[in-house]
Amino acid sequence: MTEPAGHDLLKTGAALVTHADRGAVRVTGVERATWLQGLLSNDIEALAPGRGCYAAWLTPQGRMLTDAVVLAEDDALTVELPAPLVETLLRQLNAAIFAEDVTLADTSAEWRTLGVHGGRAAEVVARALTGSRPSQAALTVDHLATWTEYTHAPLDPFGRLIGDATYGVPGFRLRVRADDADLWLSRLRLAGATLTPADELEFARIESGRPQFLVDMDADTIPLEAGIEGRAISFTKGCYVGQEVIVRIVHRGGGRVVRKLVGLAIDGDCVPATRAGVKAEKGEIGRVTSSAWSPRLGAAVALAYVHRDSAEPGTTLHVACGGGEVVATVRAFPLS
Predict the structure, then answer these.
(1) What is the pTM of this model?
(2) What pLDDT score does 227 carry?
(3) 3-state secondary structure of 217
(4) Which residue among 6, 25, 191, 202 has the highest number of C-beta atoms inside a 10 angstrom radius?
């Protein structure tokens, strides 16, 4: 029997993905929340245990050092970061501790990250948890179906279960002990998930407009360019590093930045390469950052930075592809 393709799994099944590992920094100490509140762009102090948020850590010039997911536990905050940056960022985080009661520990090597994504994700995860200790009893399919992104709970015997919407469908990430990863893969497959290469689902991340740091965002990116301000920035919290630049752009500049990350639907069968040039009538106005073939749309899709004058949905552009150019149309997220 042929296993369903990734796009079918996301719609009506459960795709099991081995995600590229995120680094994990455990932050303890009585002043952990107020300390991170002054560094990150989202409202860390508002997080109750079991809740989390997406955030950015900025330079004083408003450009990104990294993105982060912050998870509040009873006695700690876990900050998930891009794995290749953890060593450098941990040094910078330690340098930002002065007299605060804060301790940092890099726990990245302890964990592996598995994902279950799709219409049956809650059902599969609940089934995989059957027989877990009493503290897991509340994690029924009906309860999991109510989770918002970054809601989380302890995972037996170790680790964390985290709500995830990377692909624009219901989903969960399981942060499990490295030694237990194979056990959890087997458990989730027995519960009904289908092992799926992550690159087969890249189209869904693009269609959902979810930029990835080190792919679609880097040290030159201002969050407003990437369109992540709705998820990553609190406009009601107190001061944080880089806030002045963000406030100036939003309140004095009307939110206008020179370039914007947009979604493109591309005519024909050609999938453009990363860094492929994007042109308007007046010449080159941007570059592709991610691309994939979308089996759902029957067309290639891409994320690209373009000049703000060409960022309106419906705008027709041209993208370098296969030694020539193809027509591409700017579309609103989620791409359709």
Answers:
(1) 0.94
(2) 97
(3) strand
(4) 6
